[in-house]
Amino acid sequence: MYPITEHVTKSPRHTSFYLASGPAAGTPIIFVHGWPELSISWRHQLPVFAAMGFRCIAPDMRGYGRSSIYQQHQDYALEHTAQDMIELLDSLGHDKAIWVGHDWGSPAVWSIATHHPDRCHAVANLCVPYLPNGFTPDHTQPLIDRRVYPEAEFPAGQWEYQLFYEENFDKARTAFEASIPDTVKALFRKGSAAGRGQPSRTALVRRDGGWFGGAGQAPAVPRDADVLTEADMDSYVAALTRTGFFGPDSWYMNHAANAAYAAKAPNGGRIAMPVLFLHGAFDYTCETIDSRLAEPMRAFCADLTEHIVESGHWMAQENPVAVNAALARFLAVKLPAVWG
């Protein structure tokens, strides 16, 4: 019913490229991607919810695609990202939106929910749960499942890779940039039940001296057709080749700033609006089923709906039918008044 169209909105501080679909007067759903993705990460959601009457928006986040690229790590702190999204909403001529995030897009959406609750009908996040004091290694470590990650071997558990960025940023970046087609194929892979109870590959990054076993570049593996088509892969590769990984990786370089921003949230960071959280059954970095990682979210969200998706980390692309069904059910139950 509705084509997916390309748009750009500019303010004096930032430019956002975004995809859009659905009636202009429909309630906005703004889909916020994570690392190292693009607006097209929501290609399976945009037409579905547009057909339901929503105005569906998926921006390239700062540092990605055709949005503004910055050259300083501090420009990728969540406070700036939240402001980008509020300016995007302003440009649409709407006061409020439903916000949906994944990966680093989830902390961005949690930040909007806490710092700009008046701009939200509701929020939904995939994989990354809410931590009211900030999604940082300091705050995830007390929640690590030490049955899987003995402290002597994995001090930061599955979050070892985040410390590697801080300690060896250039080495991490250059490994991804050494062969971007291989990087995309190696990263975007479906989940498997076989990994349950085993350390995530992200836990090995510091021990191995880098990503991909410390090899300095991604291995040459086949494209996982259950996650990406050839055209999807080409789009990711073209965008990441043009922008590089400095911006995407810099999102990991602002833990102190992000924690300070979280501490300024009104109401002690408590979220009263309807919240949907989708657990990835086979996401072993953001493992929220067997570990305690989701506990703070449950304590600080007054109206929380949870659902498990049979998927790995890239759930919106790997299992879009289940993601779309869970989100549609949530909107129908919690937000009938804003359904188009």
What is the topology?
Elements (H helix, E strand, L loop, with lengths): L4 E6 L4 E7 L6 E5 L13 H6 L3 E5 L18 H15 L4 E6 L2 H11 L4 E7 L10 H4 L19 H8 L1 H9 L2 H8 L17 H4 L21 H14 L2 H5 L4 H9 L7 E10 L14 H6 E9 L5 H4 L1 H15 L6
Parallel strand pairs: 3-4, 3-5, 5-6, 6-7, 7-8
Antiparallel strand pairs: 1-2, 2-4
Helix pairs in contact: 2-3, 5-6, 7-9
Give a quick rundown of the structure.
The relative contact order is 0.16. By secondary structure, the chain is an alpha/beta fold. The chain has 14 helices and 8 strands.
The total count of helices amounts to: 14
Report the mean per-residue pLDDT as an integer: 97
Total beta strands: 8
Beta-strand portion reads 15-25%
* Order of helical and strand elements: EEEHEHEHEHHHHHHHHEHEHH
Strand order of the largest sheet: 1-2-4-3-5-6-7-8
| Low-pLDDT sequence parts | none
| Secondary structure: helix percent | 25-40%
How many structural domains are formed by the residues? 1
Q: What class would the helix/strand composition place it in?
A: alpha/beta
CATH architecture: 3-Layer(aba) Sandwich
CATH class placement: Alpha Beta
> In CATH terms, what is the fold-level topology?
Rossmann fold
Spatial shape: globular
* Cα end-to-end separation: 14 Å
Largest sheet: 8 strands, mixed
What radius of gyration results from the CA coordinates? Answer: 19 Å
- The CATH homologous superfamily name equals Alpha/Beta hydrolase fold, catalytic domain
